[in-house]
Amino acid sequence: MDTLSHAKCVICNDRAKGYNFNVLSCVSCKAFFRRNAFREDSLLCPFVGKCNITLLTRKFCQKCRLNKCFASGMIKEKQKQNKDHINT
Ligand SMILES: [Zn+2]
Ligand SMILES: [Zn+2]
């Protein structure tokens, strides 16, 4: 049984691709969060800051999408310096 194939991204409801940044999410949200997690302050909601983020609307408002990422439990990764495979 491949339960993950039915998993939904908690941010946009797209098909999830496992856990990214601590949260069950799709590749799109994963890439989005990686790109935008550290520029939170430069994003602005064009509406009233309460956009409903779905598969269709996720591209309309980066601010609310990012907020939803954080609200869902996504965690900003610091620059990884102590990756365990670096052992040479
Ligand atoms: Zn998503
Ligand atoms: Zn918004």
From TrEMBL:
Q: Does the keyword Protein biosynthesis apply?
A: no
What are the entry keywords? Answer: DNA-binding, Metal-binding, Nucleus, Receptor, Transcription, Transcription regulation, Zinc, Zinc-finger
A GO molecular-function annotation: zinc ion binding
Entry annotated with the keyword Cytoplasm = no
What SUPFAM superfamilies is this protein classified in? Glucocorticoid receptor-like (DNA-binding domain)
Q: What PROSITE patterns does UniProt report for this protein, alphabetically?
A: NUCLEAR_REC_DBD_1, NUCLEAR_REC_DBD_2
**Domain (Nuclear receptor): residue spans on this chain:** 6-81
Choose any GO biological process term that the UniProt entry carries and state it. cell differentiation
Protein name in the entry = Nuclear receptor domain-containing protein
- Which species does the entry assign this protein to? Oppiella nova
